[in-house]
Request: fold
Amino acid sequence: MPTGWGWRVAVIATILILFGNAAGLAAGPNVVTVSWATMAQTVGTLLIVIVASRWCGLTLAEAGIGRTNLLRSTLIGAGIGLGLAAVLLLALEVGAQLGTPITYQPLHGASISAVLTHALVGLPLQTAIPEELAFRGLVLGLLMRKLTPLRAALVTSAIFVAWHVVVQVQTLAVTNFTSPWQIVPAMGLAFAGLFAGGVIFALLRLRTRNLAAAVVAHWLFDAAFVTGLYFLTAS
Reply:
């Protein structure tokens, strides 16, 4: 066991949080546009994972990377991701029918080809894979050395939320929420949703003993949600 375990985890978490928010600020809120900033964020995240893993001696098994339960893990992740997206989209549609629709400006005027390219290519390569390697692979793997699975999942999810602060603020800024009574609860719900999603992804990784479940669940949730929101907005 490397010495200074807590210090090393704290340093890695701080670097991830600072980098994630800085990269989010540089990339901006337009999710369907590929930019140098988004590509740099992907490369930077992967570099942090590689360097930090070597620094702490993290093994592939500790990160959940391997062939063990690969197919089962992938299928479970796909079901969970699509199911969560369906529930959230249904809630948004019910809200729209009750008179509180949500609009997301970057999707206005976007072509269906751009949305599908983002969902099928951009999200897995630029979001799901690097973020899951960083959080449910690197951070969770390190925390599991000394914490119980539940505590490790909770701490990982809190760091995951902190990584998304700028992204969430930017996202809400390009919705139709303009008044404080809309923005404050929406922000709270967004961060609560991120935390819950982080816990679910962590538990998927732990229960299936493979990172594939978290990667696929993360990807398909985001992809189904963005695509569904595009059609809801268009309607």
